[in-house]
Amino acid sequence: MHTLAVEIPYWGQSLLRVLGVFAAVLLPAGTIVYLYLFKAVSFMQSRLGPMEAGPYGSVQLVAEVGKFLQKEDIIPANADRRIFTLAPYVVVMSTFLVYLVVPFGPDAIFADYDTGIFFAMAVSSLSTLGILMAGWASANKYSLIGALRAAGQMIAYELPLVLAVTGVVIQAGTLNLQGIVAAQHEGDMFGVGVIGNPFVLTQIVGFLIFLVAAQAELAQTPFDMPIAESELVTGYLTEYSGMRFLLFFIAEFASAGALAALAATLFLGGWSIPGVDLDNNLMNVVGPLVLFAKAMIIAFLFFWARFTLPRFREDQLQQLAWKGLIPIALLNIMVTAVLKVAF
Amino acid sequence: MSAVSERDQLRYIAAQAADARVNLELETEGMTLSIGPQHPATHGTLRIVARLDGEQVIAAEPIMGYMHRGYEKLVEARTYPQINTLINRIDWLSSFANEVPFILAAEKLMEIEAPPRAQWIRTIFHELSRIANITLFLGDMGVQVGALTAVFYAFRDREFVLNLIESATGGRFHPNFDRIGGLKEDLPKGWIDETRAVMKRIRSFCDEMDDLLVGNEIFQARTRGIGVIPKEVGLSYGLSGANLRASGVDWDLRRDDKDIAMAWKHADFKVWTHPDGDSFARYWVRLQEVRESTRIIEQLLDGLPSGPIMAKVPRIIKVPEGEAYVQTENPLGVMGYYVVSKGDLGPFRVKIRSASFNNISITPWLLRGVYVPDAIAILGSLYFILGDIDR
Amino acid sequence: MSPLSSAGDAAAPEVEEAPRDEAREEMLEHLQRELGDAIVGTHLRPHDQLTVRVRNDAWVAAGELARDHLGCHFFDFLSAIDWKPSPWGRGEDDPTEPPPERPTEIVQGYAGGETRFQVFARVLNTRTNLGLVLKADVPDDRLEIASWVPVYAGADWHERETWEMYGITFVGHPNLVHIYLPGDFEGHPLRKDFPLLARMVKPWPGIADVEPMPGSDAGSDDGETAS
Hints:
The structure holds 3 protein chains of 3 kinds. Chain B is α+β, with helices and mostly antiparallel strands. Chain B contains 16 helices and 8 strands.
């Protein structure tokens, strides 16, 4: 971190990075939970939401965390203890890993890989492993069925997600996330370069596919069959309570934040403000806020759809992925490639 | 969206024996799933024991009786005015409508008729209870398929109707307003204008549901072609109300029963039917019925006659000997009371024909071979109230 | 006011003074033509109700006739009536007094009857909105009657409930088990000699007036005084 004037020893830098990751993960998760899960959905459903804890219910999150922490630790008798306890950590870990490569500013990035987006896609699918572990180890038929459904759904929707991103990569010419941000900030659309080249405009099809596929990855309505299917229990989450459930809960909303941040980076220009060029030090402070705002907008779209639409049946969901989204995404790639070569 | 060929396809599927949908050769050890007696967005404590083969339901059997209160035994120990209080707890969402057929049966045996004003107000309240009941269904169907927001709007807009009922009768859910010979008391001042405003609001709620659910492609994908009930099967099971009209049977007691002492003949309304017989049709028919109810109420309010609201009845009500059966088109279906009287203060036997009992008797036939999420959607679209099934 | 028909040895049909109801009369004539002396009693109240009592062994035939010939495809309900007067009345007997005299004679209702239990059902023609109430006696020594399940599928649950509440066996019913009550329930609740336990424990005290305000009765001097 040589942008700061002070020289921090390596262990200090590592500590700051760890704390930074926690902040980077938990802040979006917490904001999403409070803003959207508590308040926005309540207003959409013509009610107020939590109002008691703190002014306008702002401290509700702290209260929830406290509630979960003091719950009894229950493990079913037939459960496979090691896998049962490991599963939440696998899911949370995959979410944290995605935040590693998201650029928050020109230099504010935890790990600037050349294959940034490829890494992000790869580790985000690790959560499927955690879900399968949870479902299997619970020794509960409902959990197993729910987990298998979730796994099937997530595998089916990984493909449109990756294909949508491929269009962006072709246009940007690099897998590096900072490079993608730069391509949007400094590029131009058919010669017009006033606001750069935000891929949301030139890759609109890819953007929409990404949103739909991300909604399915998050297992949110209209794709929440894994959670709602048994109608009584919450699928693979059935046997989890207390702290472990809190971890799944955090993972759910942190991954919503992660996918929203990725979408903001890939399509909306990440930390950069279109048409504005500030010096790097300033952007390192302003950038995270800009990215945060853009991610919140996209997260709003996720949650708006979640609380409005009915849910698909499992086979309809798979049909949408295999027969609908993947062909469109492939077409998008072809058109992008042709246009990239032509212009 | 339903072309003619699709309609024929639906009829073909439903007309086949349900066994054809289930592959009996590969009979693997299925899983028994007990849906209920508590399930989310519940209409009551109904338990459905479903034997599953993977996703498909091989056999489904409803188990009732969790709310059986023994009405037919209880009414044998009560006088007629006491029974009035009891029976509006059968279908608790549309309580006023439960009292009406019983009161009419008693009045028929006593050979008295309520004065016109009382008949018109009875009809208005019957339609209000229909709106109170079905608006809940319109929102609740959304919950069954996963759209959580619609039901909040339903509860919010129902409140206005419940407030209306409360301001006139004193009770939101159990008005206990009907009396043998008329009504308990007249309407309060300003009630008529208030009702007109509320009817406009309910119509805008119906338009909202039209946009939110009926027009939604996912909702249509979840309900079209699901749970098709052919006309003949519906009739032989005694399905009634919107369930039967959604299968194409043009039968509505409000229009077809000319002898009943209510004011429906003075209102001009359309009976909505749908040829498909699937869950979407049932939802759609009920949505139109709510709109139609608001128009009926407005017409009745326009022509409300003045006069007394209670006929001359003796202080102690003794119903002469005889048997009478009166049915009305209640929100859930056709509800009827077969009253056997021996000239006493209370009835000798009352057979309560409740709509949901017949509506749910079709589930073992209907749910074979469907997927579990579809089973939930079908049950939601049949729309039952536990008190109505269990009496 | 002419008698409706002179079918065999049936009890004379009762027609009440009112305008004639051709539609229901036609239904009755058709039934009498087809069933002949299986009809043992009729009652027609014009523009209201047609009740036909058939012999026990003609129960299914009557149902099929109604469904196929009269167009009554809609199954309304099926249940039973126990005509014996209840030995406890309405459960209002003062426990300190000796039990009052009550009539014990069994008197049936419309279309007559000869037994204590009667099964009755109603079916309807939805095109004309004309209903038909069919009744049948159930012999006292053998409480049995044929099942209507082959005729109307909806009779399944109704017959289960009737068996559960009255103890009448429906011969040929696929699954005659409890529907409302727990599987091991003993007795048949809707029979008149099955008491309503709530009233046995505490008889109804009669018309009860409004409960007095707290504190207005002689007794409690703490708490608020009645306003």
